[in-house]
Design brief:
By secondary structure, this protein is mainly alpha-helical. Helix 2 runs antiparallel to helix 3. A two-stranded antiparallel sheet has the order 1-2. The longest helix has 18 residues. Strand 1 and strand 2 form a beta hairpin. The chain is built from five helices and two strands, in the order E-E-H-H-H-H-H.
Length: about 110
C-alpha cells in the first residue's frame, strides 16, 4: 500500500499483509503524514489523534503519538508540546523505537 499526496509524492508505504486494525492504522498514518507534508497542522493533529483514539493497539499508534507531538510543536513553536509527548511515552508504548526517539524530550 502506498499513500501519495496530490502531487504524486509517496508519503507512506507498507509492504505485506496486515490484520484489519493495523491496516487501518497504517492507512490513517499515511493520510496524517500527507497532511503534515502540506503543513496542514490542524488536519495532521486530528488524523494522528484519530489513530490514537481508534487504533491504540495498532503498530501505527506509537508513531502517531510521536508525530502528533512534532506536529503540535510545528504549529505552536512551543517546546512544551514536545515535552508532553516525551512524558506520554513514559506511560504508553514504553518499549518502542518511537519512545526512544522521543526520550530526548523529557
Amino acid at each position: 500500500m502506498q499513500i501519495l499526496d496530490p502531487e504524486g509524492n509517496r508519503r507512506h508505504q507498507v509492504e505485506g499483509f496486515l490484520p484489519p486494525e493495523d491496516f487501518l492504522g497504517q492507512l490513517k498514518l499515511g493520510l496524517a503524514h500527507a497532511a503534515f507534508a502540506r503543513e496542514d497542522w490542524k488536519e495532521a493533529v486530528k488524523r494522528f489523534e484519530d489513530i490514537l483514539d481508534a487504533h491504540p493497539g495498532s503498530d501505527a499508534a506509537p508513531e502517531a503519538l510521536y508525530w502528533r507531538g512534532v506536529t503540535r510543536y510545528k504549529a505552536s513553536g512551543d517546546a512544551a508540546d514536545l515535552m508532553e509527548t516525551g512524558a506520554a511515552f513514559k506511560t504508553r508504548y514504553v518499549n518502542t523505537t518511537w519512545a526512544k526517539k522521543a526520550s530526548v524530550w523529557g
